[in-house]
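Summary for the funding panel

The consortium committed to producing paired sequence-structure records for every protein in the target list. Below we show the first two records in order, beginning with the earlier of the two.
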Amino acid sequence: MTDDHLENLPPNDRRGFFRSSLSRLLGPVADYIETKLPIDRLVPLDLLRPPGAMAERDFLDTCFRCGSCADACPADAIVLFTGDGGERRGTPHIDPNRRACVICDDLSCMKVCPSGALRLVDRHDIRIGLAKVNHSICVRSNGEDCTTCVDVCPLGRTAIRIDNNGRIEVIDPNTDGKGCTGCGVCQEQCPTRPKRAIQVHPHAH
């Protein structure tokens, strides 16, 4: 379309022309992003899923949102998400500030899941997330001999310990084979307030 012809178009038609042109220009870019970028990057990773959960994108596509895992949890650690009206609504998650997973002997949530969104795995292979320590607010930084997070960990010193410098050290299972499962007991029991010195962050699949 020539510039002269464009100038003669009514304002509404000119806006339509520009919208159409922009759509044709950005369409291939959007298609490229959709096909080339891992879809999990488009999914918020701020919720801790129950033990045995699939990668977040697969989890959201598979979970029935039936609440069976929450009903079966002996620790009452699993709650259903109500924070938004999107696809995460009704899905199970764990908030360690409220109640942590205790990696129960029966592994109940995985056994009752009817959809397969939670898969039965060995307790040492559970990967809910990874605990991270904020040493600037940890009471050990102020000289207190606190070992609460180490003492309450269901897996003990195979997951968390005191390092040679006297600081809390979380064992990353990606480097050690065994290590932190991300159950959140350390976060629940951490004495620092209002912010916990140790918090579990979801794994980026």
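The next record, for a separate protein in the list, is shown here:
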Amino acid sequence: MNGEVIIIGGGPGGYVCAIRCAQLGLKTMLVEKAALGGVCLNWGCIPTKALYAATKLLRKAESADAMGISFGEAQIDLPRLAAWKDGVVTELTTGIAALLEKAGVEVISARGRLAGEGRVELSSGEAITAPRIVLATGSRPIEIPGFSFDQEPVWSSDDALALREIPERLLVIGGGVIGLELATIYRRLGSAVTVVELLPEILSVIDLDRRTISALKRSLRAQGIEVLTNTAAESWQEAPGGVDVQLANGSALESDKILLAVGRRPNSDDLGLDTAGVEIDRRGLVRIGNGLETTASGVFAIGDLVPGPMLAHKASAEGVALAERFAGGSPELDVNLIPQAIFTDPEVASVGLSETRAKQEGASIVVGRFPYAALGKALGMREPDGFFQIVARGTDHRILGAQIVGAEASDLISEAALAVRRGLTLEALAETVHAHPTLPEGLKEAADNALGRAIHIVNR
């Protein structure tokens, strides 16, 4: 079979790229060996956020008494909760299949490998060809010495999201996004959760200011999640009633299950990269140049296979940009301006430069902040914890970055992302009338604060 574009991998990068290619009139073939939607939809973003939303009801019910509303003791029907989560995933995967069909994308259920210039061999024994091939095969969880996903007590994120049981004690190895999100969910479900992180700080690979990290850590402690930094887990052994996890400092922690969440590695193996001349670095990331083209002419890579944050929306944006480039366009995509959302409690979201990074780069900056506790909407929601922060250039007040810690931060960051992407100024944001009472008012007030004219807090 011949086409104009072959895409290997049907995750948020691959299927989005395929649909946009087809919309632009390119004959497109999408090769996917497993489920459409990839890790994000089936075993990552979507099931995690569905469970985050479901378990938030438990937290709300616990605190409702302060509002004068009382509930009986919550009952968790784990099989029904898992079935509901799976139903959300199924609805979305079915929708993606329908969108691909309507767009005219030919979906091929098989494993694909590069087999020379413009050629992809399928696990079915057939071969397909196209002048442009896009690699979008995503990533998988990392194991570390002493801990294997083949060992019964050791969970991957996939195992945790399967909801087979609620362990009385859960030890999370890894204080990154995945570890902290799942720690939040299982703490709400009733597990006693401890997080151990090898590095000096949690979320260390994300450009977040110390103030933001400190606010999150205070909240985690308040929820009963213990966080141990500068702590290395070395091995585990069975113990009466559970397991003992041995730490590098000579101590041990008792647990029932171990969630290993120390990061992900790109799925760049078994793709036949050598046959096409595609180079990877020591981490397995595919080397790319301008336009997302690899070291092999006509072969491109997107998403978790290439440098940059491993985010579904980054992969989708790269997929769209690549499709439009194939059709003769010249879209601009700056991965440094892609927002990040972390579904802890409270949520954390950021875009652009932190205050720390801006200072390190020598920028003259002004910073504005506004606390959730000063927002009427936040108080009415009983969500007073957190703050908004905006960083802008001191010379022309162009907004360089924003961080939000608090309720609905994942939704609120989009306005800040637009401001950073389009180079808006503090004045542009501050002078835009925001509806009242709402949470987005906090962004406006933070901009006002940076200008020294906030109304609902005392300006510094």
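Regarding this second record: The chain has a mean pLDDT of 96. Residues 78-103 form the longest helix (26 residues).
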